[in-house]
Amino acid sequence: MSAVRYELIKKCKQTGARLGRVHTPHGSFETPVFMPVGTQGTVKGMSPDELKEIDAQIILGNTYHLYMRPGQDIVREAGGLHKFINWDRPILTDSGGFQVFSLSNLRDIKEDGVIFRSHIDGSKHMFTPEKAVEIQTDLGSDIMMAFDECVPYPCEYEYAKKAMERTTRWAKRCKEAHKNTEKQALFGIVQGSVYKDLRVQSARDIVKLDFPGYAIGGLSVGEPAEIMYEMLECTVPELPEDKPRYLMGVGSPDYLVEGAIRGIDMFDCVLPTRIGRNGTVMTSRGRVIVRDAAYARDFTNLDPECDCYVCRNFTRAYIRHLFKANELLGLRLATWHNLYFLINLMKKVRQAIMEDRLGDFRDEFFSSFGYK
Questions:
Q1: Which of 266, 262, 233 is nearest to 343 (CA)?
Q2: What angle, 0 to 180 degrees and rounded to 10, lies between the N-to-C axes of helices 253-261 and 358-369?
Q3: Per-residue pLDDT averaged across 167-188, rounded?
Q4: Catalytic sites, residue numbers
C-alpha cells in the first residue's frame, strides 16, 4: 500500500478544477495547496510554530542542499528531517534534479547520473537516481521525487527529447531503488520542455511506471505564461484522476490560480520568501515595494484586505523603516505576510471550487491584483 493517497472531494462545474485531500504518514493536506520551500531545513525567516500559525500544511526540503550540509547521515541520526527541524506535518523533498538546471555551470550530465561540484567548496559529488532515493530515504520525507533532468528555456527539440527520455530511464531506476514504499511515496516527474508531443509522451511513459503521484517539471523556467498553460493543457489530461498532480517551482498568484483551473493540486516556489527579503510584498491590490520612499509616512497596513499577524499589527512606514535600518524583523514580517497571502489565496481557491465559481473568482482576483 502506498504511503500517500489522493482523495477527490469535488470538481468545479465552472472550470473543472478539483478540490481534494492528500493523505500522508504525517497527516493530510487539502488541495489545491501552496507549499512553502524550506531549502536547507528551514523556511527562511520563519519558525515551525509561525508556519503553523499561517496554516502551512506541508513544506519542502531540498535534497541536494541537505546532502551538502549538514549531510544525510546527520539527518538520519537525528531521526529524520521531521525530528531534525521539529516539524510534525508532511514534508516533500525534491530529488536534486532542479540543481541540474540551476547549477548548470557546476555539473556534468552522464547517463549514469550527474557529477556536481559543490557550490560550497568545489568538491565533486556523483548524483545518480539511486543516490537521490538513498538520500531522500535518510531524510525521511513523506513524498520524495524521482531524479530528473530539468532543461532550460529555450531548449532545442532534440536535446529536450534526449533529456525527457533520460528522465524516464532515471525514473525507472528510482522506482527500482525505492524500497520504503509504506512510509514514503515516490512521485514521477514529467519533462519535455515546451514541446507538446514530448510532454504527452513523457506523461504516458511516466504514468506506465505507476507512481502514487506525478509532478510536472521544467516549467516556469523563463517561458511565456501562455506556453506554460499550453503545456499544462496537453499534459494534465494524461495524468490519472485518482493521484495528486504537482506543478514544480510555481508560486506567482496568477500561476497558482490558472494552474488550479487546469487541474493542478500542488505548487511550490521560493518566490514569496525571496521577494519578501528584498522588500516586496504581495497584496490584494498588487505588489508593493515597501522599502520605497513613498511609504515613509504611510501608516496603513500592507494590505487592507489581509488579516495576517503583520497586517494586524504593523504599518508600511514601520516595515520600511526596518528595511532601511537593516533590521532582520523587516525581512521576517515581509516574508510572513507573503507566505500568508499565498496560503490564504489557495484557501479562497478551494472555497471557490466548492462553490462552483472559480472562473468568477479568477476574474475578480486578477482585476483587483492588476493582472490583465
A1: 266
A2: 170
A3: 97
A4: 94, 268
